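Chapter summary example: a protein plus adenosine monophosphate.
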Amino acid sequence: MRLLFIGPPGAGKGTQAQRVAERLGIPHVSTGEMFRAHVDAGTELGQKVDAIMRAGEYVPDAITVEMLKQRIAEPDAAGGFILDGFPRTAGQAVALDELLGAGGLDRVVVFEVDEEELVQRMLARGRADDTEETIRHRFKVYLDQTQPLLDLYDSRGLTIRVDGVGGVEEVTERILAALDPQ
Ligand code: AMP
């Protein structure tokens, strides 16, 4: 199954993508985690994206698409995957369509969480790029650039909306139930 998890920053989609990927036996592909690994390892790519991430901006599409393309070409992704945090721009969505070809995505899981809940969750997470100013900026960038992608996936009939508020296990069960309605 080729799935995309999409939602505002702090909605818990990373945690849920990890858990659902384990349950389904497919890899969890997070471009944010991949970038953070590059930053931590001090690679050339990491040095390039560090300041962009700290500012809460998006890494340019060309860099992001190339990294994602290499990841989903790996053998463990042949049987499906959960994309978490990609695509985030219209350009990335077009690139993904090209990469996936005829089959495309099977489902798009959309996380719905109240804005105040989001800010509180992110402050509690304590990640290096999580200052309050950055959090608010990332939220605005999400609304401007990523939320519009939902229209595309809605029009293809792929979206499933999930209430992201609740216990971690409860939300995982909600997602699994929504993916497998029988
Ligand atoms: P995330 O862990 O998904 O919240 O991503 C953390 C940061 O990595 C984002 O705020 C961006 O700076 C960068 N990033 C991750 N995925 C993408 C993407 N698909 N396009 C552009 N930037 C990204």
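Key point: Residues 9, 31-32, 35, 52-53, 56-59, 64, 85-86, 88, 92, 138 surround adenosine monophosphate (CB under 6 Å).
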